[in-house]
Design brief:
With 276 residues, the chain is α/β, with parallel strands linked by helices. The protein has a single domain (8-275), classed as Ribonuclease H-like superfamily/Ribonuclease H (Nucleotidyltransferase, domain 5), CATH 3.30.420.10. The protein contains 11 helices and 5 strands. Strand 2 and strand 3 (80-87) form a beta hairpin.
Length: 276
Amino acid sequence: MIKFIADEVWAIDAEWVPDIPTGRRVYDLGPEIPDADVLEHMFQAGGASEENPRPYLKTVLCRVVSVAALVRQKAKNGAISHRLVALPRYGDPAMAEADLLHRFLEGAGKAKPQLIGFNIVEADLPILLQRAFAAGVAAPNFCARPQKPWEGCDYFARYSDWLLDLKQIYGGWGRSTPSLHELACSACIPGKIDTSGQDVIDLWQAGDISKIVAYNEFDALTTFLVWLYTARLSGLLSAEETVAEEDSLRRHVTTLINNGQEYLDTYLKKWDILSG
């Protein structure tokens, strides 16, 4: 199920919205066409229907607006620490997409963490790379590959545990495949809280980047907890080690709340209710 746990693990989640300039170029829509009409054309071309007016668009047609990660680090003495990070940070304005992608990809490329995600193989990693390509971003450290599979971190090798997709582990794409929300809630882990992926475009259009970041961080926390339980299921962590990490993560989130990130209290309270 999982072959190993690296000394540094990032449970990541990205959020994106349709990119109007890309839509104009792809569908050859001139500057006289209003943005709203370009967006409608993109959805129609993507298969919009009365039942589904906003279909899932190809990721290359979208722009990345937020990336969040729950970072787990193991020190040389064996101590485990946790850190919740996001680009942009909660409360900051939206970032230029190229800057966001460069900072994330080069940060990951230098740290070489084990990357964890839910649908990371089919969604998060492709959009990060596609949009980095579109923006002319260089990320040599992230894209570097070892000459042989056993010689180091490789995010592009098939079946590599350096890029671990929880969706693939728990069902792939068959009818039995759970959503992140369903899988998390089954194990008393918070899933979606008040906001879903369908809401991100409305939040973006309203200029509410902070609510997008909060939603993004919630998903990163959920993804990490699903990975943590998966590591226990795999026998790589004991029940006692799992509980200790949960306690450590709760303390970290509590510290963030006390330091001004009050919105995280919603996640913590939901976690307490489900696990109580």
